[in-house]
Amino acid sequence: MQRLQILFALLLISSVSWSQTIIKGSIKDNKGETIPGANIYIKDSFDGTNSKADGTFSFETTESGSQILVVSYVGYKTVEQPVELNGTSLNLSLVIQEEINKLDGVTITAGAYEASDVKKVTVLKPLDIVTTASAAGDIMGAINTLPGTATVGESGRLFVRGGEGYETKVFIDGLEVRNAFGATAPNVPTRGRFSPFLFKGTTFSTGGYSSEYGQALSSALVLNSNDIAEKTQGDISVMSVGGDLAYTKRWKNTSISGKVQYTDLRPYQDLVKQLFDWEQAPVGKVGEFVFRQKVNTNGILKVYGNVDFSNFKIRFPNINNGGLKDTIHVDNEYAYLNASYKDILNKKWSVRGGLSTTYNKVGTGFNQDQIDETEKGVHGKLAFNWDAHEKVSVNLGSEFFHKDYKRSLDLADGFNGNFDFEDNTLANFAEVDYFVSNKLIFRTGLRYEHSSLLNKHWVSPRLAMSYKVSEFGQFSMAYGRFLQAPQNQYALVNNQLAPEQATHHILNYQYIRNNRIFRVETYLKKYDNLVKFQSPNDFNPLNYSNAGFGEAKGIDVFWRDSKTFKETDYWVSYSYVDSKRNYQNFNELATPSFLSKHNFSFVVKHFVESIRVQFGATYNYASNRPFHNPNREGFQNDATPAFHDISLNAAILLKQNIIIYLSSSNVLGRDNVFGYEYASQRNSNGFFDRQPIRQGAKRFIFLGLFITLTKDGQENQLDNL
Known about the structure:
Helices cover about 5% and strands about 55% of the residues. It has about 725 residues and is mainly beta. It folds into two domains: about 15-95, Immunoglobulin-like (Sandwich); about 110-720, Maltoporin, Chain A, CATH 2.40.170. The strands form seven sheets. It has a 22-stranded antiparallel beta barrel. It has a five-stranded mixed sheet with strand order 8-13-14-11-12, with no helix packed on it. A hairpin with a 6-residue loop joins β5 and β6. The termini are far apart. Mean pLDDT is about 85; it is low at about 5-20 and about 115-125.
């Protein structure tokens, strides 16, 4: 009996061994590289193993018949391979494909600086924009600390990579903002119209931007507004230059916000000595309305409105009139309305679109002369994003621009006249991102534009690529052609002028690790079809042409570190640009007067938790700028002194909901000179007299008290300062 039991056991062991199958082989990716650590197993069983360092594997299974062999590895598509198990050995060579991660994989960074709380590869965040000491709460002022920008203190606008201020366009939620800067007089700096509190993210492109955006030669500043407000709250601000009241109401799927602001620099200028002779300091009244509605699970409707009324009167010495002063009076009426909607239609399609309209009326009095300008603009857009394939994303859409510009003259010499023009531009764009892998992406785009005024069309190609050389570093390249209609004052004289053109070539390297960012970018920009004329204020259309040309080339460097020093964040920007143009009334190829070859910014912020104070400092430097001195031979033959500015700020948290904020620009009181105005005739000694173009005051000091009212009393505006 015992022998029969032993024989039966041997037969059972033999039958089990006969039914086992050995599965072995190797795992590689589509490039032929071996994959160590991959998980290989029979589906719905416990039989499996991991691949070795050389990618090989081997295991035994008692499963039989038709089965599914599964291969999985992080970052790669899971493979399910049908196999037939019949007790014989299987030797398999398996290839797995990399899984494309469009969110965290390689991204296009050439020419683009992201400022958002939702993207991992951002350079600045919204908080940075409003805590930069030199910015004084102005979005444009904070952007001006990034590489690629130039300090042009008498303007206040964004001058990017050898381009003039008008070459930068602003968009809110993808829709155009005309006249994004406040109205001003020559050599009086202005500010952006919009509060940084409105926006959750900013994309500042120094070149090579998406084909979705057009009508900008040098740069696109794209502001993405906040979604539904987090809670109901009220805000009270009392400032040295005015005050504002704001209130936000939040429901489950809706929020409504309103704000009124009054700015009056007259009391401030009575206390702080001004270099400008203000007959009436700037006064402004601003109202804002924001509506947010969640439409369904993914859809959101946003409506934003802004009205702005401002005026001032200033006197400037007239160097051609024995120093007697001219009086300039500016009145501005501005209104902007933006309605946008975006939604996810299904797994592959999403939609966004909207309509914006701008009204801007500027009345300028020059002594006894009166000039009134009115610009009306409309922009409509409908765009779709299509995930056509795991490796292919498509962005396509159409948009429509309408511009109506009028100018009326009522001059002291009796001349009266009205001039106007109107243009409708239709644009279509398509852009394809091809994700070759998580390390390599290509982008190709095309933009088509047609002008009703000229009855002509243009096609502008855009190309870009990025390659991730390591987990933290990547290279990017970009190429594109960009068009922009001539400025209003030129199109008014000759409405048949073609768009100005710029072609961008960009090479970029970016490294991000442990809250440290390093970027270096070099570029070449070619200008064509720039507007030329014989002399300013020439109203003969035959003297205007598109014969101008030029180029700009340079390198930008950026370093940011919020890791090394506790509670301290700082960044350093440096830009070198070499630019020459033959445009406007230039008689030869030369560097324009707004350009400084070297620009440097250092921004630091430190929070002292024990006393609940955030300190900030900014140092801005710009090398000398060329200008034309008629007392010397040659053209653009002289240079201004270099620009230096040290600005400081501090935010003190008195209580959880009360903040005192103090800032000062140019704390050392340096007398920065931006150029000179020359007399049109020689004096008795045979020289042209001149007077400097200076900043309006040695420094600008701001003091504010900010109070936030909520049910729990725990909210404050620290994130907005």
